[in-house]
Design goal:
By secondary structure, this protein is mostly helical. 73% of the residues lie in helices and 0% in strands.
Amino acid sequence: SSHIYVPAPQPVRSLTRVCLSTIVRSSKRAKERGTMSSSASHTILACAGGIAGVIEAVLVQPLELIKVRFQLNHGHNGSIISCAREILAEESAGGGTTMKVSRLFRGLLPELCGMFPTRSVMYSSNEMAKRLLLGNDSNRNQEKMNEETTSIIALSGAFSGVAEAAVVTPFQVIKVRLQAKEHLGKYTNSLDCIQKLCREEGLLAFSNGLSATIGRNSVFNCVYFTVMFKIKQVSPTPQDSKVKATVHSLVTGFVGGVMATMCNAPFDVVKSRIQAQCPSSKSMEYTSTIQALMKIGRTE
């Protein structure tokens, strides 16, 4: 339902992906012309993915914080504006009366630290999976490759989500703990959160919600890259103008991002719920991804 996810960050996410796509296309053209080696092309791809991820994290962090608060709330959520005001008020209660916009960026450090490796792994593994699935058979005709392209795009996107989840999960655990309303005051900063997690819950705490994160990222990447590909099949990128090409990529990325978010939202909610809960003497509310999906669907 609409109260458990916020698709609002997607327009900004699509902007960073447009910039990344431009860099990727340029590196591929240079590789085809022979002016750039394969290893250099892979390095540029990884670096571009990381840079795009960092820009994305900074721009959408306030909305990400609000999204996590919405996901952790078991009842009805208000508007984005009312939630932002609530965050500013509760954060300022223990540290003065001045309301600072910086309080909306709680949990930004682990998000930033995780963005570069996770985005690099996502785009690199996606490209690697496509090459493996396509093979290196020079005799394969173009028609056969076109018939396989849609399924290859979907499978490679799903594969990249698994690799991305393995890298991003520890950073997400720290971020969710810092942003969760029930943990306000428990962790003073990211380092304090890491130390307390290690001491109180052990190293395995950093893998909490891994299966849900795999589901979230695999579904998102599968839908996102597939929708982008299908739209470009129907409406190819204009070649007569860079402005038209950029607008086309922006619209395509926006549509793909929103559709992917709508599909992966249940896994995202479960991920946040599992990562926010701490072990206690009582039984854990959520014990697995499937159990959490069924319980949330049944009770909320």
